[in-house]
Each structure stands twice: as structure tokens, then as C-alpha cells.
């Protein structure tokens, strides 16, 4: 092997030191960037849920501020102040206070199916409330005007105290349900209700939009015999949990 080849394979120590300087700088910069990104993206665990006996919590859903009693919040992880995608409550009827008896908080996701099942299992003095952001969903009144009429049957029947009951057609997204509303003013109060099936009682949901949030209440269909009280209770509920409505 020639001396020239040896020199190429083993560069002078000074030249190696010059080349290692920029390389070390790049390594340091990459490591610093990776540390920063890892810190920002590292998952954080929520703090412990608050006790149920603390004052009403300020929570924001869909950009709307609410104040909710922790004892009424069904999911423990929702028992935190701040911004939420949804809040789920259980309240005694008709006083709209947190139930006196213990509510079981389980690990089932709180969705429409499970909320309806919980209502069917509950006592007849329980009101279930969900507050969710109106993201990509038409407000309830718009659905009443533009969506529900597409799926309704033509034949209506009379309900309690001036109510009209219109069934949804089979094969539609709301099959097996009825749309219930006062004939003289449908926008005053309306509900989608399931029918009783054997031992399973019928249930109803009524919805209202409040800014960027939607408030849904679920209650037994039997309550429609005093639907004016239910509508007034909905008003009281909004005034109770929304500071600007007081």
C-alpha cells in the first residue's frame, strides 16, 4: 500500500476535528428538537376527579359556559372544570337537584344507546341530561323543519293535552319512534319517543340549541301526560346551569 493511500485512509487529526464540529452541532440540534417534540406530544393523564360536594363547576361545551353540580355528573372523568366535548348529568325530577341516592358510575361509554338503557333502568323520577357541542350537526329546530318531515308517516293521532303524535315510517333512521308536539305550536315543545315494548317503557328525548351547544333531556314517555310541566322544567334547567339565562 502506498503512503498516499495510507494518508487518505487516515486523515490528519486536525482535519478530523474540524469535520466533527459541524456534525456534533447537528446532533445537538436534532436531539434538542426531539426532546421538545416529545415533551409537547407526551400524553398527560387527567388530574383526580373533584369531590361531589364542591360547588358548581364551570365547564365549557361548544364555546358555551355552564355551571353544573359535580354530584349530578354521571362520569367521574367529566368531573373537572374547563373545556369538555360533552357533559352527562342525572337529576331528580321535578326539583332538578342531584339525586339523593348513590348513582353507579360504570365504565360503559355514555352514548345515546346507553343513556336510554340507563333511563329504562332508573326510577320514574330521574332526568338524564347531555350537553354536547353542535359540531357538524343541524340544530334541533332545523331538524324539526327540514329533516324529520322526510321520514314521517301521513297519519297522525291525538295525544295528551293538545299533543299530536306522528310515527316515523319503517325503514327510516327513526323507525319505531314517534314525533310528538303540540299541534298549535310545534316549535314550543317537541320530542322523539320510543314506544313501550313489553317490560321496557317508552322513553323520550327533547333537544334545544344554546349557542354552539346542544342540550338533550331524556325522560319516561309517561311524562308526556304533563308535557307543559316538562317544557317548563327544560326552561328551568337551562336557567339553572347557564349563568347568562338567570
Describe it:
- With about 250 residues, the chain is an alpha+beta fold.
- It folds into two domains: about 40 residues; about 190 residues, no CATH class.
- It contains five helices and eleven strands; from the N terminus they run ααββββαβαββββββα.
- The strands form two sheets. Strands 4-5-11-10-9-8-7-6 form an eight-stranded antiparallel β-sheet.
- The longest helix is centred in the first third of the chain and has 29 residues.
- The radius of gyration is 29 Å and the shape is elongated.
- The N and C termini lie far apart (about 95 Å).
- The N terminus is likely disordered.
Write the layout of secondary structure elements.
Elements: H1 3-9, H2 13-41, E1 57-61, E2 64-68, E3 82-84, E4 86-92, H3 112-121, E5 126-133, H4 140-147, E6 157-158, E7 163-167, E8 177-182, E9 191-194, E10 203-210, E11 213-220, H5 227-241
